[in-house]
Amino acid sequence: MKNYKKIFVDKVWAGHPVRFCAIQSEELYFIGYFNNERKMCVAKYNVQNDVLEKVVLPEKLGWDSHNRISLGIDRGGFLHVSGNMHKNALVYYKSSEPLGIDSFKKISNMIGLDEDSCTYPVFFKDQNGELFFRYRNGKSGNGNTFINRYNCNLETWNRVLNKPLFNGEQKSNAYPTEFILGPDGYFHVAWVWRDTPACETNHTLCYSKTKDYVKWFSADGTALEVPFLASGGDCIDQIPTGGGILNGNIEIGFDEDNKVIVSYHKFDEFGNTQIFNARHDGSTWKIYKTSDWNYHWSFSGGGTIEMDIKVFPVRKVGTQLLQDFKHKKYGEGTWILNNKFLSIIKKLEFPKEISEIKKSRHSNYITNFFND
C-alpha cells in the first residue's frame, strides 16, 4: 500500500464550487486554486525538501462556478496558467523561468483570434510531451471549440487546425469530455450538443479518436471530417432534446478487451433516468442499460444545478470490470459488471463509515454542477 502525506497548502474559497487543478513534474507538485479571499493562486510543493511556495496572481473569482483553473508545463519546463473565465476575454499567464511560480507574466493573447469570449480552458499533452490548450469561444448554445499547440522553440502558440474542432454554426455548441488516452494509443473523446443555454436541450451523443489532434477517426477507424458539426462525428446515440442526457456527465472507460466504453445517462422507455454504457462491436455501437432505477431526474435551465446522479467510467481492476455509481436516492457504491452485456453481476456498497465521511465533506450529498 502506498504511503500518503497530507500537506496543508492554504485556506480556499468554499462559497460555491469551482474546479481547481494539480499537476506534477518529477518531485514538484503545482496546484492552481482560489484562496479564501477568492484570489487566484499557484502553489509549488517540493517533495524532496518538503518546501511549499505560493504566489497570488492578480485575478479574483466572481460568483461563477465556471471559472475553473488549468495548469500546464511545456517541454522547456515553463508553467502556463489559464482560468477565471466564463465568456470573458482570455486570461493567460506564463512563467519567465522554468518551474518557477514567482515569475508569472500575463499575456494578452495566444493566437489573437477567437479569444474574446472564453470558457473551459484545458491544458493537456500528447504522447510526445507537446503542450496543447483547448477552450470554447462563444457561449452555451452558440460556441466553437479550438485547440492550440505550443512551440517551445519559438515560444509561440499556433492552431492545430485552421478551424475549430467543434463548430456550433451559431446555433449550438459541443460539450466534449477530456481527451482520454486509451490502451490502443489513441486519445478518445465523446461529446453532446446543446441548442440553448438550457441544459435540457442537450442532445446527440457522439465520439471520435485521434493520435495527433489533426486526423480524427470513428470507432471503426473511418476518417472523419473536421470541424465536427451537429450532424457530424461518429454518432453513438441519437438522443433528442429533453431526452435526459447532460453535458459534463459523460465518461470514457475500457473493457477487459481494451475496447472503449462511453458511459452516460438518459431516460429509459418508462421515463426513468438510467446509466447506459455504449460499446462499438466493430460494425455499430451497442447500447446497454446498466442501472434499473425507479427515479426520474428532471433537470432544466442554465447556471449551476444540483447533481442527482454522477456518472463514472467503466474500468478494469484485476480480472473484474467495475463501475462506480452515485445517486441521490440510491446512494453510492461500485458495480461488478458482466463484460459481455455490461450488466450488473453484483453491487458493492461503501462501508457505512466511509459514506458518512463522504457526506460530512460536502454540503450536498451529490455535488453541484455548473453547466453552461
Could you walk me through the main structural features you see in this protein, from its secondary elements to its overall organization?
This protein is mainly beta and 372 residues long. Helix content is 2%, strand content 46%. It has one helix and 30 strands. Strands 14, 15, 16, 17, 18, 19 and 20 form a seven-stranded antiparallel beta sheet that branches. Strands 9, 10, 11, 12 and 13 form a five-stranded antiparallel beta sheet that branches. Strand 7 and strand 8 form a beta hairpin. The chain is globular.
Question: Summary?
Answer:
With 372 residues, the chain is mainly β. It has 1 helix and 30 strands.
Question: What does the secondary structure layout of this molecule look like, with pairings?
Answer:
Elements: E1 21-25, E2 28-34, E3 39-46, E4 51-60, E5 69-73, E6 79-83, E7 92-95, E8 104-106, E9 118-125, E10 131-139, E11 142-151, E12 156-159, E13 166-167, E14 173-176, E15 180-181, E16 187-194, E17 202-210, E18 216-217, E19 223-224, E20 234-237, E21 251-254, E22 260-267, E23 273-280, E24 285-289, E25 304-306, E26 309-317, E27 320-327, E28 331-337, E29 344-349, H1 352-360, E30 368-370
